[in-house]
Automatic annotation (TrEMBL):
Protein name, per record: Acyl-coenzyme A oxidase
Catalytic residues of the enzyme: 479 (proton acceptor)
GO cellular component: peroxisome
Chain segments annotated as transmembrane: none
Gene: LOC123168675
Residues bound to FAD: 189, 228
Family: Belongs to the acyl-CoA oxidase family.
Acyl-CoA oxidase/dehydrogenase middle domain mapped to chain residues: 185-302
Coiled-coil segments on the chain, per record: none
Subcellular location: Peroxisome
Alphabetized GO MF terms: acyl-CoA oxidase activity; FAD binding; fatty acid binding; flavin adenine dinucleotide binding
Required cofactor names: FAD
Length: 696
């Protein structure tokens, strides 16, 4: 019997036999394909990529072809805006800028876009939402503060006129909002209430003698807070308040008709002085977005004409009689908020753009930066380290997945605006809630990972991660706190679940539940649970079935838990007891929707080589998500131990494969230098540009 070395492996003599050399080289081949040159000798066995694992370098990734497929219909509009700003260096946002100067610059940037570049944002939002969101992305690439101020003016203030007002409001305000003559605000949030809009305390009491509403802030908790554009530039505000009708309640008490929106002038159109009865204070310096002038507003018996009620869903006649096409306060409230989903669509859309910027900087720097290497050989790129691939390649895959998900969201939103179909509106409400929450949370975490992956140079302000992180962070909160939005998704899933077992129809986004819930009720197949072949694991049917099975299982189990706890805790208590379960359910569903859109985008790609690259990226996205939640699949025997191990190995391998085309994948985002701006993220001469920034 051959003796064993102290390390536990064969002795040096044994290792030198042809059989052992072949086994050792074969093991290297199985672990990872090698780029090492072939050793001399005719009988040498060299590691080579097997047919099922062709090197991605062989895919011949073409950044131009990828760009052509990714590019939206309105890339020409974006390019025109980029060129406009390149030619106007006085409109560029410097790295260091005091808050007051940043605010004034943001307003000048927005005015230049509208009055010099000829952009008509409100018209675009009304007529072509896809182009409007493309403009928003371009604006955000220049300065996120500018994008948010832009969104307040058009998505929120202008959007409230379009979506909550009627013809008389559009005729009076539309053009002057569009050309920026009427800068405005969206005054919903209060000091004591943000997410719980139905509990707002500001009041609008009708005075039938003067035919006016009286806007009041009854206590400090009702002060309107964080109102963008209000501290400096706003002349109007859409104020959300409780509509109070005196003497029309039970026993002659005032009747509270619920939350309505009112147009309230806050500054003189000529002098810009704050109007009587209105107090405006500055919310001050923030963690980020300091180009946006957030303020706090208090109203003391401010009178506005009755016509200033945005009356699409409820109106008050001259005699004080209230009418509405919707029978209850809750239905009117739901309709009102349902018309404001454009803000969530915009945030999801913009967050994907910010993720692309962060990933592009991090990947380009990781390709450039060289540290350590084999003895007496050149240093290697940090992106050649498996740990770095593990950080950045699934993130790059996610950026692609989110790109196609947001395209789907905008298409659905555009369809909703054209058709006013109630089912599509309900679908978009939940879809936008889920994608806004999931994407903004993912992007926020990813920016920090990108900063860390760039080491000390990632900490330099000029390399942008600090501003990206701080400016984007609030995306997780405004237009709906992410935790609250996920609960809306979970609530709708439960509603659909109930419909399923009552024989009702399922809406388009959820129709996969019909089959996957039926599958859940049967036990996992013990044969397929053990399949570990690469063809099987990279089959989109397996991937999507796994995502949907997980969602259906979570839905079925949380429904049972809620039913159990409601008996002792009531509805609210049961919901709170199961809250983490519900949030996991919502995230699982959103991931399934994202993967479905990515798979569809891969199938629809007309160019075969580009399709093959996208398939590789899609596989990494799907299998990385499965691996990150492998415990769920293992607990129900959906995935056997050997299959879990195979998934883990394949994720590492696919990360390596994606690394080989990482440069082409980030170049395909087609982000111009004026959007990237970070010296370490430039396509060429990165170190030279970086040293110039500090004076060399």
């Amino acid at each position: 019997m051959a003796t064993m070395s102290r390390s536990g492996y064969g002795s040096d003599d044994e290792d030198s036999t042809p059989a052992m050399r072949r086994l050792r080289r074969l093991s290297l081949h199985l672990l990872q394909p090698s780029d090492r040159p072939a050793p001399e000798g005719a009988n040498s066995l060299v590691p080579a990529a097997c047919a099922g694992r062709r090197r991605a370098g062989g895919l011949d990734a073409d950044a131009a072809a990828l760009t052509a497929y990714l590019r939206g219909r309105h890339r020409a509009t974006q390019d025109r805006l980029y060129r406009f700003f390149v030619e106007r260096p006085e409109l560029h946002t410097p790295v260091e800028l005091p808050m007051a100067a940043h605010r004034e610059l943001c307003f000048r940037q927005m005015a230049a876009l509208v009055r010099e570049a000829g952009v008509r944002p409100l018209s675009l939002m009304a007529d072509d939402p896809d182009e409007y969101f493309a403009v928003m992305e371009a604006v955000g690439g220049l300065d996120i503060s500018l994008a948010v101020k832009f969104g307040v003016q058009y998505s929120l203030w202008g959007g409230s006129i379009i979506n909550l007002g009627t013809k008389k409001h559009r005729e009076k305000y539309f053009d002057k909002i569009d050309n920026l003559d009427y800068p405005g605000c969206f005054a919903m949030t209060e000091l004591h209430h943000g997410s719980n809009v139905q509990a707002l305390q500001t009041t609008a009491t009708f005075d039938s003698v003067t035919d006016e509403f009286i806007i009041d802030t009854p206590n400090d908790g009702a002060i309107k807070w964080w109102i963008g554009n209000s501290a400096l530039h706003g002349k109007f505000a859409t104020v959300f308040a409780r509509l109070i009708l005196p003497l029309q309640g039970k026993g002659g008490e005032p009747a509270d008709m619920g939350i309505h929106a009112f147009i309230v002038p806050i500054r003189d159109l000529e002098t810009h002085a704050v109007l009587p009865g209105i107090e405006i204070n500055d919310c001050g310096h923030k963690i980020g977005l300091n180009g946006v002038d957030n303020g706090a507003l208090r109203f003391r018996s401010v009178r506005i004409p009755r016509d200033n009620l945005l009356n699409r869903f409820g109106d008050v006649a001259r005699d004080g009689k209230y009418t509405s096409s919707l029978p209850t306060i809750n239905k009117r409230f739901a309709a009102t908020l349902g018309e404001l989903v454009g803000g969530r669509v915009s945030l999801a859309y913009s967050s994907v753009g910010i993720l692309k910027v962060a990933v592009t900087i991090a990947v380009r720097y990781a390709l450039l930066r060289q540290q350590f290497g084999p003895p007496k050989q050149p240093e290697i790129s940090v992106l050649d380290y498996q740990s770095h691939q593990h950080k950045l390649m699934p993130m790059l895959a996610s950026a692609y997945a989110f790109h196609f998900a947001r395209r789907y969201l905008v298409d659905k939103y555009s369809e909703m605006k054209k058709t006013n179909d109630e089912d599509i509106s309900a679908d978009v409400h939940v879809l936008s809630s889920g994608l806004k929450s999931y994407i903004t949370s993912y992007t926020a975490k990813s920016i920090s990972i990108c900063r860390e992956s760039c080491g000390g140079h990632g900490y330099a302000a000029v390399n942008r991660f600090g501003d990206l992180r701080n400016d984007h962070d609030i995306f997780q909160t405004f237009e709906g706190d992410n935790t609250v939005l996920l609960q809306q998704v979970a609530g709708d899933l439960l509603k659909q679940y109930q419909q399923k077992f009552k024989g009702g129809t399922l809406s388009v986004t959820w129709n996969y539940l019909r089959d996957s819930m039926s599958t859940y009720l049967s036990q996992p197949n013990p044969v397929t649970a053990r399949w570990e072949g690469e063809d099987h694991l990279r089959d989109p049917k397996f991937q999507l079935d796994a995502f949907r099975y997980r969602t259906s299982r979570l839905l079925h189990s949380v429904a049972a838990r809620l039913q159990k706890h409601m008996k002792t805790l009531g509805g609210f208590g049961a919901w709170n007891r199961c809250l983490n379960h519900l949030l996991t359910l919502a995230e699982s569903h959103v991931e399934a929707v994202i993967l479905a859109r990515f798979i569809e985008a891969v199938k629809s790609c007309p160019d075969a080589k580009t399709r093959e690259v996208l398939k590789l990226v899609c596989d990494l996205y799907a299998l990385d998500r499965i691996w990150k939640d492998i415990g769920t699949y293992r607990n129900v025997d959906y995935v056997a131990p050997n299959k879990a191990k195979a998934i883990h190995k394949l994720v590492d391998y696919l990360s390596y494969q994606v690394r080989l085309v990482a440069r082409e994948l980030v170049d395909a985002f087609d982000l111009p230098d004026e959007v990237i701006r970070a010296p370490i993220g430039m396509q060429s001469e990165a170190y030279a540009q970086y040293t110039q920034c500090v004076g060399f």
